[in-house]
Amino acid sequence: MQVTFEETKTLKEKPSDNELGFGKYFTDYMFVMDYTDEKGWYNFKITPFAPIALNPATMVLHYAQETFEGLKAYRTREGKILLFRPEMNARRMIKSNERLCMATIPEDLFVDAIKTLVNHEKEWVPHLEGTSLYIRPFMFATEVAVGVHPASSYKFVVILSPVGNYYPEGVNPVKIYVEDEYVRATKGGTGFTKCGGNYAASIIAQEKARKLGYTQVLWLDGVERKYVEEVGTMNAMFIVDNEVYTAPIDGTVLPGITRDSCLTLLKAWGYKVHEEHFSIDFLMKAAREGRVQEAFGTGTAAVISPIGELFYKGDKQIINDFKTGAITQKLYDTLTGIQYGKVEDSFGWTQEV
Ligand SMILES: *Cc1c(COP(=O)(O)O)cnc(C)c1O
């Protein structure tokens, strides 16, 4: 890839590894490229991390043609920098963009852009255990026009943020509010895409849950509010009677890469996996009867997040005494082990930058 490099005037002071938090600090540079229907993708650049000026009539500001991805770069003990299944993010962004009638980015170009930027910003990949460099690729319509139609021009940007734990609680159980009023996605909609609009629409439920003392919401299906779908930015899995339950990927749930990786591991370990619709009533009843042994969310940001409490219509159920379960812990250790190069990568999931 031919990339133009623009040097920054001043390099930032790097934060210390134990005060990173999540998404608060950004590195010195970003990757940018542009698209027009005539030229395709062009103008590949690594430029200083800086504001982007937009014409007030830019389409994304009015019609929300925006999609994004999220992945991480991990530093191994030997000092290698690893990415985890970046081609899956590339393919998912293609699907998101197709749904929103946005231009798509070829898989190789997407992965190359990320590797080029991360390689340039290597020094920013933190060293402390549990830390990583969060990679946020995103793309939006730049055509200047008022009027709803597919845009003819786009900008793709990659920014990087050194991060610690997603939840201030760390790898400890979180309290989940089962949302029975608002919905996130319906069949035929955009639930399977990572588009900004999905999250804009979800914040109200997140706020409601937060005010009631809950960390995240568990969404139910958008039609009957009956079937369990996923958590705010994580897929959700439940171990009931030693078998794994998670919602299927059929249009409303985000096809998480962590979800796919967990299911692959769980199947390899001999667990029976139900990727099928199951109702919140089934789940709460099983919880009341003490049959929900473990519950957890899966996503790049938090990796595995144990669920310690479910609250649904006044019924509060504590899962596994609000402790991290053995399967949850094993998944976390195995996945992070592979990501940090400490556990053999028998599925070929990591790529060196
Ligand atoms: C990003 C995301 C996930 C998790 O996907 P990963 O690829 O595992 O990070 C799950 N649900 C939603 C709604 C998401 O936005």
TrEMBL record:
CC cofactor: pyridoxal 5'-phosphate
GO MF terms held by the record: L-isoleucine-2-oxoglutarate transaminase activity; L-leucine-2-oxoglutarate transaminase activity; L-valine-2-oxoglutarate transaminase activity
EC number from the UniProt entry: 2.6.1.42
Record's keyword terms, sorted: Amino-acid biosynthesis, Aminotransferase, Branched-chain amino acid biosynthesis, Pyridoxal phosphate, Transferase
Pathway assigned in UniProt: Amino-acid biosynthesis; L-valine biosynthesis; L-valine from pyruvate: step 4/4; Amino-acid biosynthesis; L-leucine biosynthesis; L-leucine from 3-methyl-2-oxobutanoate: step 4/4; Amino-acid biosynthesis; L-isoleucine biosynthesis; L-isoleucine from 2-oxobutanoate: step 4/4
Protein family: Belongs to the class-IV pyridoxal-phosphate-dependent aminotransferase family.
NCBIfam families listed in its UniProt record: ilvE_II, PRK13357.1
InterPro entries registered for this protein in UniProt: Aminotrans_IV, Aminotransferase-like, B_amino_transII, BCAT-like_C, BCAT-like_N, BCAT_family
Organism: Fusobacterium necrogenes
Modified residues (N6-(pyridoxal phosphate)lysine): K194
Protein name according to UniProt: branched-chain-amino-acid transaminase
GO biological-process terms attached to the record: isoleucine biosynthetic process; L-leucine biosynthetic process; L-valine biosynthetic process
Reactions performed catalytically: L-leucine + 2-oxoglutarate = 4-methyl-2-oxopentanoate + L-glutamate; L-isoleucine + 2-oxoglutarate = (S)-3-methyl-2-oxopentanoate + L-glutamate; L-valine + 2-oxoglutarate = 3-methyl-2-oxobutanoate + L-glutamate
